[in-house]
Structure formats: structure tokens, C-alpha cells
Amino acid sequence: AQSVTQPDIHITVSEGASLELRCNYSYGATPYLFWYVQSPGQGLQLLLKYFSGDTLVQGIKGFEAEFKRSQSSFNLRKPSVHWSDAAEYFCAVANTGTASKLTFGTGTRLQVTL
Amino acid sequence: DVKVTQSSRYLVKRTGEKVFLECVQDMDHENMFWYRQDPGLGLRLIYFSYDVKMKEKGDIPEGYSVSREKKERFSLILESASTNQTSMYLCASRWGVPGELFFGEGSRLTVL
Questions:
Q1: Are strands B10-13 and B107-111 parallel, antiparallel or unpaired?
Q2: DSSP B85
Q3: H-run or E-run covering A44
């Protein structure tokens, strides 16, 4: 069975600082990988996804993530954080195949200080 | 834009009641999902459906059932609600593998 670990429950960064949110997955083959963001009181929105090809993927709002097979990681990065980035971030992994289900990590809450 | 609509944003029910949570999507998506979200636990998959009348158990199906009679509608049923089912329930849909999930705004259920 697939699983996702987000080791950081809560991260605080200053506005303008760089950000890296960690995500490690467990799956036997090359998975489909996603990052979602949830702002307070809102639903989840897709930031970016990796299916195959270039291991550095670009997403919305200036986010990017890098798939590293050797480390089973898919860390999310942003070079300069804005106060509006404060939210909860979820990494997710999906197995391949018709009945593909998406398994989420426990989330990382990002706080941005001004 | 894809729209996933959950019929109730907030519900309060009593222990033992039968509860229906309805979800409708308007984009002819093949796959639909029900998750529950709890603080510190992230999103946990209850059930999903990859086609009409097809369903698969997720990671925490106990105490829940689902129904998908029409492609656009996926219902989550709590046969006999219990206090430990107090949670935020999120519905999502997807066109197919390996597409992204589109989420509804959630239904916050409180069981007293």
C-alpha cells in the first residue's frame, strides 16, 4: 500500500524568505505525485503534479517541486514566500492503474510572518 | 470550471441517526471520492468510485457505505452515526487516471 509522510507539522517563515516543504512517499513503482493547498475555510486546490518526464515541475503561484526517485521524495519549494501563502499544504501519492486512489499526507501548516 | 457541490455545509445529527451526504459534479467525471479530514490526520480516503455502480473501499470504510447510481452523484451514508464520525467530509471528482482531483467545499458533520 502507498503512503506519504510529511515530517513537518508546522513551519513558520518570514515573508520574502525561501520555503521548502518536505514530502516522502512509499510506493513500489513510479507514482503519480501531487501537492495541494488548503486556505482557511476553503477547499483544496492543486498546486502541481508529477506523472513522468522532467523531474522538476512548475506549478501555480510560483511553486515548484522536484521528484527524487533515489530519496523517494517530492519536496515543494518557493523562492520567496508571500503572506498570502499562509495555508495548509498536502502532499499526495496515487498508484497507477484504473482504480487509482490518492493517498494524502497529514499536511504541513505554513505560517508567514511579516 | 469544474464544480463539485456538496449539498450540506454544516450538519448536526444525533447518535444512531442515518446520515446522507450528497455530492454532485458537473463535468462528467468518471471517478469520485469521499475523504474525511481531521486535524493532525490529514485526509483519509473512505470510499471511491471509478464508474457508475462501482465502488472500492478506501483506508477507513468502517461505519460508512456509498451509492453511485448516476455518474454525477456520489452519496456517502452513515447507517448509524456515532460521535467518532464527527468530522469534515470532502468529496472530490476526477476525469480519469492520472488526473487531478477537484474538491467540494466540504460538509462539517457534528454527531451529538
A1: parallel
A2: G
A3: strand A44-50
Q: What is the mean pLDDT of residues A15-42?
A: 92
Residues of A in contact with B104 (CB under 8 A): 43
Q: What one-character DSSP code corresponds to residue B47?
A: E
Q: Which residue has the cell 451509492?
A: B67
Segment A29-51, tens digit of pLDDT: 888 999 999 998 888 999 999 98
Residue type at A40 in one-letter notation:
P
Q: Which residue of B has its CA nearest to A104?
A: B43
pLDDT above 90 (res B100) = no
Spatial CB neighbours of B103, under 8 Å, sequence gap ≥ 6: A43, A44, A45, B4, B90, B91, B92
pLDDT of B95 reads: 86
**Residue B84: is it exposed, middle or buried by C-beta count within 10 angstroms (0-12/13-18/19+)?**
exposed
Quote the radius of gyration of chain B (alpha carbons, Å). Answer: 13
Of A34, A99, A104, Cβ closest to residue B100: A34
